[in-house]
Predict the 3D structure of the following.
Amino acid sequence: MYKGIGLVIALVGASLLTSGIYSAVLDLIAFVVLVYMGLNHKQYHRGKQTKEQEAHLAFNVKKQRNDKLDITP
């Protein structure tokens, strides 16, 4: 992720030093890299969820004691 951010910063920096079509192409490439990083990050976190995390409720019924409610989100 840090490499991607560094790449985007380098592309935008190079875009500031150029003009015309080169600047537009560098901005487009930086935008595509950001979109790719966003989609890749979203899929990475979606794949790490387990069934227990998906079925997590506001009231944790499995681990509560008889006299106490666990109301942690």
